[in-house]
Amino acid sequence: MSLVQGYSSDEDSGPHSPTNDAFGLTSIPVAKKPRVDEPSTSLVPTSAPDVLAEDPLHQTALVTRPTDTQMNVNIPYQDMTLPVQGPENPFGDRNRFLNQNALAGHVEEQAMSEHAFRQQHLTHAILGYSANPSVDPNAPAVIGSMEKAAENGFATIGMLKAPKAKKNELKRKRKPKGDLEVVDGDGAYEGPWASWDTDRPENMVPEGEEDEEESEEEPEEAVQPKKAKPKRGAPGLESSVFHGKSMYDYQGRTYMYPPVSEAPQLQQEPGSQECFIPKVCIHTWTGHTQGVSVLRLFPNTGHLLLSGSMDTKIKLWDIYTHGNCLRTFHGHMKAVKDVTFSNDGRRFLSCGYDRQMKLWDTETGQCVKRFSNGKIPYVVRFHPDEDKQHIFLAGMSDKKIIQYDINSGEITQEYDQHLGPVNTITFVDDNRRFVTTSDDKTIRAWDFDIPVVIKYIAEPHMHSMPAVTLHPSKKYFAAQSLDNQILVYSTDNFRQARNKRFAGHSVAGYACQVGFSPDGKWISSGDGEGNVVFWEWKTGRIKSRLRAHSKVVIAHEWLPHETSKVVTGSWDGLIKLWD
């Protein structure tokens, strides 16, 4: 019995019982607490907030942030029931008006044509009233002045029509036609030319005003109007500046005298030595502030260089001694287009876009004479004969070539055949004839002083030829054609030398000057990219391409007494000497 009892008590004790926990799992320590469902205590809301037990700061006012979830102050009841104080919030209450249906007020949608709207708008602007478009039955029918509306019968401005009597009142009336018998004075016949009643003759002043005007005029006479300061280089205000220390050397010679001691080769015949192609820049002349448009060497010796620029100035440069600027000539108001020396170099002509042609003294810098016919001269040339140094030709923008006599200052001949502005004038055939080229893409040859074309060259494939140079042998002239080639023509029969054609450079759009070496062996030209290109005259092959400037090389000249010296001028404002 006791055994049985003992067994049963073993059974009750749990861990040892084979039926309850055969593997002794209960003896392993528990990792997690078992979830026990405890009887839930109900959450009772507290009516009073958690407030400070004592209020040392006497915080009676409630200041909360929007993020606060607790109030830390007990507000007294009387504060809670106070009436609202302070100004009314204009934005708080959405509907400020009784019939407000939008934030800005009462809005109704209405459809009307542009014409109807314009009529009402004009009526309101001019007459001061317009129809009310509202569908609200309580709204007034008219907006604006009710009296004006009633006066005009509520009509829009388009419906109103002025009565005839009013129209006639406003119409201006003619004065009476006058009497046919009377020629002059009061009541003279004016007929349909009678003036209007309202017109006041310009010279007629009402009686009272006359005295006032007279008294006003008197003090005005004393005040002289300020004249605009005349520009440097304007006609009659030409000037020049000498840049050296002294005009004369120890022998009393000016810069006109060739520096034979520094350059003995100046005494030789030009073109007597064999020429070569230059390779390096040995000198740069700076001084022009804008592009250089033309370069000319002193005749025969070539010891001075004349340059015309778009900065309106003409400068004379020294080549052999110090390589500096000798003189600046201020004589044009706009860009200089062309300059040319007389045979002895003592005088030179310049022309510019200010429509002026001026004759200068090279030595003293004086402007001797000025010529103008109101057109832009594009080219000026002295007649090369010694006995005709008082005659020069100018190719103008109005398609004419004009011949001036310097002594009298008068136009002695006009050559008028071209159909476009004249670009070049070249004397040929012992100066008995001259050749001109123009924007009309033709070449015309003339006998000097006879305004009749003796040779007219025009082909459908020809382009404009804005630069022409004579070969040193005087048998040919080379023309820069704007289709990127140089064409050569004979000076005796003006036929094109088909075997001589120089291409491979890009000049389209630029009047780049053509150059010949003094011995005639090389032909050269600037191009639009800033290069100078050299061809062999015999073969037509490009021998060299010299990178000379950053912009188009518009002008260049070979020094006549040197074997390989070339001066280049460009739109970058620089003039360079190459050897």
TrEMBL record:
Q: Name one GO cellular component term.
A: catalytic step 2 spliceosome
- Compositionally skewed regions (Acidic residues) per UniProt: 207-221
> Which segments show compositional bias classed as Basic residues?
165-176
Top-rank taxon of the source lineage equals Eukaryota
What's any GO biological process attached to this entry?
mRNA splicing, via spliceosome
Q: Where in the cell is it found?
A: Nucleus
Coiled coil stretches, renumbered:
none
Molecular-function annotations in GO: mRNA binding
- Matching PANTHER family, A to Z? PRE-MRNA-PROCESSING FACTOR 17
Residue segments, region Disordered: 1-51, 165-240
* This protein's UniProt keywords: mRNA processing, mRNA splicing, Nucleus, Repeat, Spliceosome, WD repeat
Task: Tell me which species this is from.
Answer: Lentinus tigrinus ALCF2SS1-6
Each WD repeat occupies one of these ranges, namely: 285-319, 329-370, 415-449, 546-579
Q: What is its main location?
A: nucleus
Q: SUPFAM superfamilies from the xrefs?
A: WD40 repeat-like
Q: Does the keyword Ribosomal protein apply?
A: no
Query: Under what name is this protein listed?
Result: Pre-mRNA-processing factor 17
